[in-house]
Amino acid sequence: MSFMPRYANLIIQGLKSVEFRKTRFKREVSHIVMYSGAPEMKIIGIIETEGYEEDTPSSLWKRFHKEGGISKEDFMNYYGAASKGTAIKIAKCIPLKKHLKLSAIKQDLRPPQSFIYVDEGVLSKLIPRN
Predict the structure, then answer these.
(1) What pLDDT digit, counting tens, does each position of 37-96 carry?
(2) What pLDDT is attached to residue 114?
(3) Hey, what CATH topology would domain 2-120 get?
(4) Cα–Cα distance for residue pair 15/11, rounded to 1 Å
């Protein structure tokens, strides 16, 4: 999953425990590979999830703004006229000691706009390296 570097760093520091997204996962997700966008453009950590909540953006803000690590203005600008949103609850973040290029997962893999699904074996490949 792609993250803006400022939000990725808040997660790594333990200051952000909810990630807001416009779309929900179509299948069960227990872990998220964190890709920090430009200028870093590397895999920086693994998130263990506690599930997610889908609701209107205004309801998500009321329930999770303290854990979201985002200003109300940026939150509202992100969702715009969207009628639904998702709050991904973060149980734990495992920072990688060595940040990795996307090619560590798969050759010629392009940064996702939001997220892509990867095989479970990816986690076992990433975590032992660190």
Answers:
(1) 999 999 999 999 999 999 999 999 999 999 999 999 999 999 999 999 999 999 999 999
(2) 62
(3) 2.30.130
(4) 6
Alpha-carbon 80 to chain mean position: 20
Around 35, how many Cα atoms within 13 Å sit in the side-chain half-sphere? Answer: 20
Q: What residues contact residue 6 under an 8 Å CB cut-off, 6+ apart? A: none
- Stated pTM of the model: 0.86
Beta bridge partners of 95: 45
- Cβ atoms 96, 33 nearer than 8 A: no
* Six token digits for residue 59: 């309801």
Q: Where are the domains of the chain?
A: 2-120
